Amino acid sequence: MSITGTLIIQMIVFLMLVGFTMKFVWPPIAKALDERIQKVADGLAAADKAKSELSSANQRVEQELAKSRTETAGRLADAERRALTIIEEAKGKATEEGNKIVASARAEAEQQVIKAREALREQVAALAVKGAEQILRKEVNASVHADLLNRLKTEL
């Protein structure tokens, strides 16, 4: 066989191999490459979608945090106002109680002054009777002169 015949046979075998490869081997490889390209594109699209969802979720979180901060600040202000109101009420009640205690003490002092005056009147009356008794050098009967002592008490 000559080189030309061998070369022609090799070309025929090569063309059959190329035809076989193009018909049976190449379509599954191309299909696998297309699927891989599609998977990568889907992954990139999902990553972009996840990134946009993440940014929108971050915005919602920031909005909720801002809302929570304003709500907390409002509650703190309300609590402070309520505390001031309670303090003012307590001051008012304490003042009221103090006034009641002072009034009670004054009333009690008045009663004690009245009692002391009564006791002093009785002592002065008794001393006056004793003094009169000693001046007269005779005994004065207390039952007889009770009316006199009562008048003396009222005059003092």
TrEMBL record:
Name this polypeptide is given: ATP synthase subunit b
UniProt biased composition (Basic and acidic residues): 61-74
Pfam families assigned to the protein according to its UniProt record, in alphabetical order: ATP-synt_B (PF00430)
Localization per Swiss-Prot or TrEMBL: Cell membrane; Endomembrane system
PANTHER family reported for this sequence: ATP SYNTHASE SUBUNIT B (PTHR33445:SF1), ATP SYNTHASE SUBUNIT B', CHLOROPLASTIC (PTHR33445)
Subunit relationships: F-type ATPases have 2 components, F(1) - the catalytic core - and F(0) - the membrane proton channel. F(1) has five subunits: alpha(3), beta(3), gamma(1), delta(1), epsilon(1). F(0) has three main subunits: a(1), b(2) and c(10-14). The alpha and beta chains form an alternating ring which encloses part of the gamma chain. F(1) is attached to F(0) by a central stalk formed by the gamma and epsilon chains, while a peripheral stalk is formed by the delta and b chains. F-type ATPases have 2 components, F(1) - the catalytic core - and F(0) - the membrane proton channel. F(1) has five subunits: alpha(3), beta(3), gamma(1), delta(1), epsilon(1). F(0) has four main subunits: a(1), b(2) and c(10-14). The alpha and beta chains form an alternating ring which encloses part of the gamma chain. F(1) is attached to F(0) by a central stalk formed by the gamma and epsilon chains, while a peripheral stalk is formed by the delta and b chains.
Gene: atpF
Function description: F(1)F(0) ATP synthase produces ATP from ADP in the presence of a proton or sodium gradient. F-type ATPases consist of two structural domains, F(1) containing the extramembraneous catalytic core and F(0) containing the membrane proton channel, linked together by a central stalk and a peripheral stalk. During catalysis, ATP synthesis in the catalytic domain of F(1) is coupled via a rotary mechanism of the central stalk subunits to proton translocation.
UniProt membrane topology term: Single-pass membrane protein
InterPro entries found in the cross-reference section: ATP_synth_B-like_membr_sf, ATP_synth_b/b'su_bac/chlpt, ATP_synth_F0_bsu_bac, ATP_synthase_B_chain
Superkingdom in the source lineage: Bacteria
Taxonomic lineage: Bacteria, Pseudomonadati, Pseudomonadota, Betaproteobacteria, Burkholderiales
Region (Disordered): 55-74
Organism: Rhodoferax antarcticus ANT.BR
Residues spanning the membrane: 6-26
One cellular component (GO) term of this entry: plasma membrane
Protein family (similarity comment): Belongs to the ATPase B chain family.
One GO MF term attached to the UniProt entry: proton-transporting ATP synthase activity, rotational mechanism
Keywords carried by this UniProt record: ATP synthesis, Cell membrane, CF(0), Hydrogen ion transport, Hydrolase, Ion transport, Membrane, Transmembrane, Transmembrane helix, Transport
Primary localisation category: membrane
